[in-house]
Amino acid sequence: MRLSTVPAILASVLALASPALSTPSNRATDIERRDLRQIYAAARKESGVLQVAWGGDEQSDSVAAAFESLFPEVKVNVTVDLSKYWDMKTDRAFLETGSDCVDAAFLQTMHDYPRWKSEGRLMPYKFREWEDVDPRLKDEEGYYLGAFFYNFGPIIYNENKLPAGAEIPKTYQDFLKPEWKNKLVLTYPNDDDAIAFLFSIIIEKYGWKWFSALISQNVHWVRGTATPGKILSQPSSQAAISFTTFPTGESNIKLVLPEDNYMCWPQRGAIFSSTKMPESARLFLSWVMGDDYQRNWQRNGLAGTRNGFGAQEMFQKEFVDPLAFEKFMVDRTKVEWYKLQFESQIGTAQGLSPLVDGI
User: Where is the signal peptide (predicted)?
Assistant: First the structure.
């Protein structure tokens, strides 16, 4: 459980250790004028390995490999862990050493970034295409920004495992139909804040009776949001459908958007002011916000956060509010209330961390 006193303790430590860092500078940050080639030239002069915290529940080397293929003389270690653990690791490192344990962080815990800014722990940086990001998705002084969109709630299913004659659900109420009993695999909503928010949206519409009826469908509850997709792919599993995962890339795993409210959010990114590799960190953030990487997110209903790569379309979707998740995350009392409600009905999340469960 996150202790309410931790932010106050951190603020006190910062103020005592370095008054100059206790509040962020009000000096305007200039927009980057250099292109990636020029930033790379500066980054090559730095020594070490850039450490990047990447929120997620399945380790992947693809981000680091893509970056290093373009900038081979700048080494990067992109470490995936649950965002709720990364924020604790960075806070604990700062309490113990006065320095954050990574150079940059791209996490789901949106509520952390304003706090880190107020504690003087973030380095402002406005990448070259800064003006192409909607003001609602970035800190106006350049301390953090939404880097790309994720969502949960789209319906993911294995077309080879559907019950005979079954119609794909259009709403979450449809998952209560008899044909979906024993066919659902879902992420524990008490183990992931984004999934908790998705379930809160559904319950606000259909009531807690919906959740009770869902439980009676004999749901296969799992840890991690990639896990349901992997289980859907397993021929030995009877699970056929989910709404807490994303496509696996296999041709028989399909996606359809619901005719019901679901959730999305801009995953936030920032550079820590304690970095010893500022140019490398600027290069990495500029690459993430560059044309090629942003374009990669324009699939499966997702988008980059630059206007030129689908951001405005996210604000125009009928069933989703891109800004609502942050409001939920800031209200930690509400978050914990929902998660304890879920836990009281389905129990604590069982199983190994999705990072090491082998699924």
Answer: 1-22
